[in-house]
Amino acid sequence: MKKLLPRMGKRGRGTVMTALSALVLVAAFLLGIGASALKQRWNSYIDMTEEGLYTLTDAFLDEVSDITDEIVITFCADPDILLNNYDTRYTYIMAREIEKHMDNVTVVTCDVERNPTAVQKYRTTSTTKISWDDVIVSCDKRYRILTAKAFFSTDSSTEEYFAYNGEYKMASVMLSITAVHRPIVYFTVGHGEAVYDPTDPDNAENEKHRAFYQLMVDNGLEVRTLSLDTAEIPDDCVLLVMNGPTVDYAAPAGDRYLVNATPPIEKLDRYLDGHGSLMVFKDPTASLPALEEYLEEWGMAYQNGVTVKADRTGAGDDAALEAAREALFAVYPESSKEALGNSLFPDIADLTTAPRTVVVRSGFLRPLWVNNTKTFSTATSALTSPVLLSAGEAKAYNTEGAIVDDAGSYSLAQITVRVSTVDACDYYSYVFCAATTELTRNETLDNPTYANYDVLFSTVRSISRTDEYASDALGGLNMNSEMYGGKRLIPSDISSTDKDVYENGKLVFTYLGLTPTAAVWWTVLILSPAVAVLAVGAVRLVRRRHR
Q: Over the stretch 132-143, which tens digit does the pLDDT of each residue have?
């Protein structure tokens, strides 16, 4: 080059230098693109946040270290969109860090806007919408779908994020979908209940209840049986099911019970006081005074000996017409009137032309509370709501076929939620009651024409979700780092001053300005090119002077 440049004129040397400059710029541009691609491919980020938002804690790694099942974390948008969005950036980078540390975890991305079928197997109902900012954590057939906002703690008054609890939430979900803590649903036995036995598939009567059993399995639940006569309800029970009992749960005299044995209803009450969930499917002809009296404490009363029938006429024999009248097409509760019942499956209930749920041979339940609410104490209150209603023209008939009520819009299934506040945290108990046993039969759950499976699946999922398996070392929801381990957030618009926020005289969280670590890195990045140019120039100048 030294020999070449002197032979050229000024114009030639200028052309060469311009070309070299252009090549350097192009190389720098391509290097930047390559570095960006490698950064995303290998998740090679430098964590400059004071709270280590992008660095996994030892507590998290210890919490999930025993998980050996294959886990897939699916993000529903392309990486560039995830990284450029405040709600998804932290969680995406955290997931990639988990992938680096755990060989059994795989992170995948897909664009659900362009390819909605990519997440079809994760849709809980036929009309479920999975959004671009949802995160799906799956293991085999068990999975959870979380919104991006679920990984943050939010100020209740301003709805602004103030802490990132991603590690706690992710560990909770990973543990809940793996065999480390498999949620268990118990079906009661010994009182005439119907329970599917997977070891006896050739039994015709047993086979009638296969679909309801499979629905529980599809929900990620392990199915077991339990006799309330002889055993307490276990601590690992996330849902207790009484499917078609014909014998009451009172404690009768006789040698069926040990002396001083605890009555089943007392065990049930203790379980629900401990924030459990109960489902009852009762035939309208069955009379269970002890159980029904207890359920009235939850704001719902079974109306025995009556059947709700549709107002239908048509040709055919009497038996066929009667069967058609007993098959009701349920009306879903409106969100503006019955928000609780609607919230169980809003993606179905809110559709203008919603798929039908058929309810066969059903009685009805009567709500007992004024305005469907009740306050038990300053810390405990409850809300009840219909889940499935009959049409307005339906009527109630007694066993002789006479009309005993023509009010219409009967509650065929009802749910009550009780909320207890303990140490500023809310705990929930659920009781779901249906005035029919036909909802759990194969004939309705296996029929894709109806929405029965979707409705019941969503209801079970809503009242049996217990994902809080992570230890306190990782912190809890809605709590910050100084108290419980969640990581404080540095706002996206970093300011030059810090802002401390206090509640009741105690520091709750701090908005940080530019952290010392970030300041050092910014200084290095900004000054490095200038220092490099000065160094090269100084070397060349010294060499020229000493030629």
A: 999 999 988 788
Give the DSSP per-residue string, 200-230.
-TT-HHHHTTHHHHHHHHHTT-EEEEE-TTT
Token couple for 29? 């541009």
Region label for 384, one of left (φ > 0), alpha (ψ between -120 and 50) or beta (otherwise) = beta
More confident residue, 414 or 535: 414
C-alpha 335 chain-centroid distance: 20
**The CATH number of domain 184-250+258-464 is 3.40.50:** yes
Q: Which residues contact residue 427 at a Cβ distance below 8 angstroms, ignoring those fewer than 6 apart? A: 275, 419, 420, 421
> Two tokens at 204?
């015709």
Compute the radius of gyration of the chain from its Cα atoms. 32
- Residues 447-489: pLDDT tens digits? 888 889 989 988 998 888 655 555 555 544 333 333 334 666 6
CATH superfamily of 58-178+476-511: Glutaredoxin (3.40.30.10)
Summarised one tens digit per residue, pLDDT across range 193-206 is 999 998 887 888 88
Q: 70-128 pLDDT, tens per residue?
A: 999 999 999 999 988 888 998 999 999 999 999 999 999 999 988 888 888 887 665 66
Residue 22 Cα distances to 32, 348, 536, angstroms: 15, 60, 19
* Residue 152 CB neighbour total at 10 angstroms: 23
Rounded to an integer, what distance in angstroms lies between the CA atom of residue 543 and that of residue 547? 6
Residue among 314, 318, 285 at smallest CA distance from 302 = 285
Domain boundaries, the chain: 58-178+476-511, 184-250+258-464
Question: Rounded to whole angstroms, what are the CA distances from 487 to 52, 174, 498, 499, 537?
Answer: 8, 19, 16, 16, 45
Average pLDDT, the chain: 79
